[in-house]
Specification:
This protein is an alpha/beta fold. The chain contains 11 helices and 22 strands. The chain has a 6-stranded mixed beta sheet, covered by helices on one side. The chain has a 6-stranded antiparallel beta sheet with strand order 6-14-15-16-13-19, with helices on one face. Mean pLDDT is 95; it is low at 1-13. Bound molecules: flavin-adenine dinucleotide and iron/sulfur cluster. The site of flavin-adenine dinucleotide has 42 residues, from helix 1, strand 8, helix 8 and helix 11. Iron/sulfur cluster (SF4) is lined by residues 222, 238-244, 248, 250, 252-253, 373.
């Protein structure tokens, strides 16, 4: 389609006021980075966001409320839970954070198999409510899929992305220790949150017993000691209140709202258009490139088009798949760039099913101060340098030791003076560990568009057809055995193993469907996150992932986005795209 020949309902008279150098779809973690990089490079950039606007500080209504100031003390009323069985399952969802999550009935999708699609639709996306864990991948995760035969070759390696990890870590502000581990390389870290005394003891015991297993202070997107660049963003030191998902009044954790978007706005090059539900990317058959984006206004349901020279897809993995699948033309009848029919396939997630917890005896004369908004991590120790197990892939774990509330006397009725008295004293120490496992990319794990069901804006519903497999079961079994053995050897008592049987999706680490690769026959994107067959469209959210690895993914999306934006700007200058 040529812009000049667009049909009359299209806003062709308004092309000038609707024209930008770059369009970014989505304002969450990756979209915020795209906006920052493109605006800093001097490009007039439009960010299209389906949700409402959320301004840093002003729109955090619960940030400073005390527990007794919530009508239901933080819980959701039963009616609400019954009406929202999906979103109320999300980690951290509660009366204090509910305003940053969707409502089930507003955003339906089809579950071919059980799949919990957790979403936060607003300016800032899920960057407001993420957990903030930011470990790096090691060089091995980039080579393992091809090496061990469970996926295609990544088009880039650790050395390509390492400088970009550093770049985003410095700006976002990631805390952590420099541990010198191969399985979880060090980054540009602010000082870590400290272990408490029981965690210190646990770490000592584990490292005495296991030479290949490392419990470390986690790497988190929290300003433990703000550097100049963070102060320039108007952000301040973390106060260890552990109320982050409400939005932070100190800007102490990284979000698009506290960091990248205001930074982009300062350049004067940013326009954010909230309530803009992107329907599709417009492809020009004569120019052989994408020329813009069609949106439906979330409130008025009016259709409008915006035009730009490059487009960044950052709607979060599954929504990016949906938009690309819905972007059909004569050239691309099955979705933009989808010549090989693989768009929407090889959807992946991470395996959060296993956890163990138990009691630690002693240490009753010790306590800790503050509420640490972070956990310790154990780096992956499975299949790192070669496949040694009867399953593919690895897992990392989150772990910690805390003191319970409630000394003697809490076994009786949970009310009355004795109970109140007991709850005002510290109880025994407990210890926990839960897994974050790799899942294997499979063609059968896929999303596609419903042929007959549409949402309120006339856009086809997404169908999710994603399931766990035998490899996931083996990996889970190994985690449960190994974590129980490690904690038992470290003296933890009364260990309990849990398989929570969560459906895929609840891990909230949606990935794949538009994967990177060297060969256009088996992938959608090249090593610069460009669609092989439509070079001015870049996909830099989780949809681009060729495999999942075991580490939390968002810091990698940030690094991919900054790297791709830098490349895109150079290509634009050379007039190559
Ligand atoms: C409770 C929780 C804990 C998490 N913990 C961690 C963690 O510890 N570490 C980690 O790495 N990750 C974590 N995640 C995952 C992390 O939030 C995501 O990986 C990350 O936000 C993905 O970034 P994104 O830019 O792709 O998507 P998002 O941040 O979700 O942003 C996408 C944006 O696109 C918008 N959008 C969607 N569709 C359209 C459309 N059609 N038109 C216009 N706009 C659209 C959305 O409204 C949204 O604002 C967690 C998530 C949650 C919810
Ligand atoms: S713990 Fe730190 S980052 Fe989280 S809300 Fe408190 S001050 Fe902000």
């Amino acid at each position: 389609m040529d812009i000049d020949s667009l049909p009359p309902n299209i806003n062709s008279r308004g092309v000038d006021s609707h024209s930008f150098d770059a369009i970014v779809i989505g304002s969450g973690i990756s979209g915020g980075w795209a906006a920052k990089e493109l605006c800093e490079a001097g490009l007039k950039t439009l960010v299209l966001e389906r949700g409402r606007d959320v301004k840093h500080l002003k729109d955090y209504p619960t940030a400073t409320l005390a527990p007794w100031e919530f009508p239901h003390r933080g819980e959701m009323p039963r009616k609400f839970v019954e009406e929202n069985p999906l979103i109320t399952k999300a980690a951290g969802f509660g009366e204090d954070t509910a305003h940053f999550f969707i409502r089930d009935k507003d955003h339906p999708y089809v579950q071919e198999k059980p799949f919990d699609w957790i979403r936060g639709y607003q300016v800032g996306g899920k960057s407001l409510i993420w957990g903030r864990a930011c470990p790096r991948w090691s060089k091995y995760e980039f080579i393992a899929p091809a090496r061990d035969g469970y996926g295609i070759e990544w088009p880039i390696g650790y050395d390509d992305i390492a400088p970009w990890y550093s770049y985003v870590e410095r700006f976002a502000g990631i805390c952590g220790n420099r541990d010198g581990l191969e399985a979880m390389p060090d980054g540009e870290y602010l000082p870590p949150f400290e272990f408490n005394c029981v965690e210190k003891d646990l770490q000592k015991k584990l490292s005495a017993k296991y030479k290949d297993r490392f419990m470390i202070q986690g790497r988190w997107a929290q300003l433990t000691e703000p550097a100049d660049i963070h102060l320039k963003q108007g952000r301040a030191r973390c106060q260890a209140r552990d109320l982050c998902m409400r939005g932070c009044p100190f800007g102490a954790y990284f979000s698009s709202n506290s960091s990248t978007l205001p930074w982009a706005a300062k350049t004067g090059n940013l326009t954010v258009r909230p309530h803009a539900v992107v329907h599709s990317v417009i492809y020009d058959e004569n120019k052989k490139k994408a020329v813009g984006v069609r949106i439906i206004d979330a409130l008025t349901h009016e259709s409008t088009e915006y035009f730009a020279r490059i487009i960044f897809m950052n709607a979060s993995a599954l929504n990016t798949n949906l938009i690309l699948l819905n972007s059909t033309s004569n050239r691309f009848p099955n979705g933009l760039g989808n010549d090989n029919g693989l768009l929407g396939k090889f959807i992946c997630h991470q395996n959060y099913r296993g956890s163990v917890h138990g009691r630690i005896e002693g240490f009753l004369d010790t306590y800790y101060y503050g509420r640490k908004p972070a956990e310790s991590m154990m780096a992956n120790f499975r299949n790192l340098k070669k496949q040694e197990m009867d399953f593919a892939g690895g897992y990392m774990a989150f772990m910690g030791c805390n003191r319970r509330r409630g000394a003697a006397g809490t076994d009786g009725p949970q009310l009355g003076e004795d109970y109140k008295q007991a709850m005002s004293e510290a109880g025994e120490w407990t210890c926990y560990m839960y897994m974050q496992g790799e899942t294997i990319p499979k063609e059968t794990n896929r999303v596609y568009l419903s042929k007959d069901k549409k949402d309120a804006w006339g856009i086809p519903l997404l169908v999710a057809d994603v399931a766990y497999d035998h490899n996931d079961e083996l990996l889970l079994k190994d985690f449960l055995e190994q974590s129980s053995e490690m904690l038992t050897n470290a003296g933890v008592k009364d260990l309990q193993q849990v398989d929570n049987h969560w459906a895929p999706g609840r891990d909230i680490h949606e990935m794949g469907g538009c994967r990177m690769g060297k060969d256009p026959r088996t992938s959608l994107l090249n090593g610069w996150n460009q669609l092989h067959h439509c070079k001015n469209v870049f996909v830099t959210d989780g949809a681009c992932m060729t495999s999942t690895a075991n580490q939390s993914p968002s810091i990698l999306y940030m690094a991919f986005t900054a790297r791709a934006a830098s490349f895109a700007v150079k290509e634009l200058k050379k007039q190559e795209i």
